[in-house]
């Protein structure tokens, strides 16, 4: 039928056309109108977003910083530019853990570092995966924050804080100064950078009521702290349940207290009695023999028994060329012996530092000023210093400044006080109105109640 070479060529062309038609890609067929009707023109927007790996034109490593369940949106922070953007979510959005296994959006927390793909033109989130490159430390109790250097030490590792680092408490953003060394934290980051700090267990505040008979005595709060009781003190305490031991001149007692996050709790100790003082004789054995001994800030003669009132006392032992020892001792019997051995300093520099810090005889000193907000009570490391604007003596190191005002939320800030020979000033944000004088309190029996 097809003589000669022309017929053969024609046959090959027909056969090739049939083969190409039969092998048309199924992906090309899907892109057409499956009902067989004409495809919409290029200018027509159907509003349909196809699911699948090709349904995005942008990808990003970001931090999930917010979500709106009513509007079905999620807000992300771009790590490179530090800009936020919001994407819509629907049934076609895929959520995955760091291993690629499917999860629900409820399993993703605010502050998580994620890899996202999305349609920029539609502002639609295609996929979200917990970043495989991110590391995390959960429920960390032992760490050190270095505000000036912008670093956090976790064990022997040092990590950098960035301008994009997110600080969160109960899903809400907070300032880095809101952190306290007593908080239990979780960290997320990439490489040597910490990108999310989340408060897992925060802190509240404890105030004593009817404590006139115990000023100058001691308060023990569980295993967390021992403090001398001062007038109008406001203590920062990790949230939780505690047995509080109050003692002064052999009297006092134990009460139960519950501390809630960011709330002030009042403990009434007016029912505790102080009996006639009881004394115990304590014999100190000191090595080296030249050791000077201080009890509750006063120098005592350790050559013979020292009479001390029953209760807790602060003991400081120091000697030239040796490391000083500071510890608390409890006197609860008629006689007792305490052995104190000092270790030699490794260098003269340490000795000089120890000697210079042993006491401060200067009356002229630099100050730290709290200028704002005005009209609030100011506490430094739990001790009342005045109504702002006010000031206190400048001692280098990390300090906790607490601001309080009736009917407003109490706030505390961890600040770094430098060692420069000049005054230092701080201004903080206004306190938030709460409408209640105290959020929670404890009755004389120590049972917690809210009001």
What this model shows, in words?
With 451 residues, this protein is mostly beta strands. The chain is 8% helix and 47% strand. The chain contains 3 helices and 36 strands. It has helices spanning 4-22, 26-30, 348-357, and strands spanning 58-68, 73-78, 84-88, 94-96, 113-119, 124-130, 135-140, 144-146, 151-154, 157-169, 172-173, 184-190, 193-201, 203-209, 218-221, 225-228, 234-238, 240-248, 251-259, 264-268, 279-287, 292-295, 298-300, 306-309, 311-318, 325-331, 335-341, 367-372, 377-380, 383-387, 390-393, 397-404, 411-417, 424-427, 440-442, 448-450. Strands 7, 8, 9, 10, 11, 12 and 13 form a 7-stranded mixed beta sheet that branches. Strands 3-2-1-5-6-4 form a 6-stranded mixed beta sheet, with no helix packed on it. Strands 17-14-20-35-36 form a 5-stranded mixed beta sheet, with no helix packed on it. β32 (397-404) and β33 (411-417) form a beta hairpin. The longest helix has 19 residues, at 4-22. The protein is elongated and about 85 Å long. Mean pLDDT is 82; it is low at 9-51, 348-363 and 443-451.
Would you count the extended β strands for me? Answer: 36
Count up the helices: 3
Query: What characterizes the major β-sheet?
Result: 7 strands, mixed
What is the C-alpha radius of gyration, as a whole number of Å?
34 Å
Please give the oligomerization state of what you see: single chain
In the predicted model, the low-confidence regions spanning at least 5 consecutive residues are: 9-51, 348-363, 443-451
């Amino acid at each position: 039928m097809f003589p000669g070479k022309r017929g053969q060529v024609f046959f090959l062309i027909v056969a090739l056309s049939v083969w190409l038609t039969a092998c048309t890609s199924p992906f090309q067929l899907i892109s057409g109108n499956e009902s067989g009707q004409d495809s919409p023109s290029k200018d027509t927007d159907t509003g349909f977003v196809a699911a699948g790996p090709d349904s995005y034109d942008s990808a990003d490593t970001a931090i999930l910083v917010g979500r709106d369940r009513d509007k079905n949106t999620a807000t992300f922070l771009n790590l490179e530019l530090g800009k936020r953007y919001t994407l819509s979510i629907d049934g076609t959005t895929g959520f995955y853990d760091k291993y690629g296994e499917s999860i629900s959006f409820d399993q993703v927390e605010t502050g998580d570092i994620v890899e996202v793909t999305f349609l920029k033109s539609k502002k639609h989130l295609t996929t979200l995966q917990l970043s495989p490159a991110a590391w995390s430390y959960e429920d960390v109790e032992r760490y050190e924050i270095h505000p000036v250097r912008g670093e956090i030490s976790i064990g022997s590792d040092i990590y950098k804080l960035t301008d994009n680092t997110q600080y969160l408490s109960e899903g809400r953003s907070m300032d880095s100064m809101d952190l306290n060394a007593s908080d239990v934290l979780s960290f997320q980051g990439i490489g040597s950078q910490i990108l999310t700090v989340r408060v897992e267990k925060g802190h509240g505040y404890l105030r004593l009521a009817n404590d006139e008979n115990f000023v100058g005595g001691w308060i023990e709060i569980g295993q967390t702290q021992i403090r001398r009781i001062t007038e109008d003190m406001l203590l920062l305490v990790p949230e939780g349940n505690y047995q509080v031991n109050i003692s002064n001149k052999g009297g006092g007692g134990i009460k139960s207290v519950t501390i809630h996050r960011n709330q002030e709790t009042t403990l009434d100790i007016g029912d505790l009695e102080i009996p006639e003082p009881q004394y115990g004789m304590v014999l100190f054995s000191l090595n080296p023999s030249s050791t000077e001994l201080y009890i509750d800030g006063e120098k005592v003669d350790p050559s013979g028994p020292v009479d001390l009132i029953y209760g807790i006392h602060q003991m400081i032992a120091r000697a030239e060329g040796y490391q000083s020892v500071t510890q608390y001792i409890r006197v609860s019997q008629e006689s007792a012996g305490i052995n104190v051995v000092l270790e030699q300093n490794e260098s003269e520099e340490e000795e000089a530092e120890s000697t210079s810090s042993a006491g401060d005889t200067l009356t002229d000193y630099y100050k730290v000023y709290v200028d704002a907000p005005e009209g609030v009570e100011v506490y430094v490391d739990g001790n009342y210093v005045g109504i702002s604007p006010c000031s206190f003596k400048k001692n280098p190191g990390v300090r906790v400044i607490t601001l309080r005002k009736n009917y407003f939320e109490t706030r505390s800030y961890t600040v770094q006080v430098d060692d420069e020979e000049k005054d230092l000033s701080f201004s903080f944000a206004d306190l938030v109105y709460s409408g209640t004088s105290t959020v929670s309190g404890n009755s004389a029996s120590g049972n917690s109640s809210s009001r």
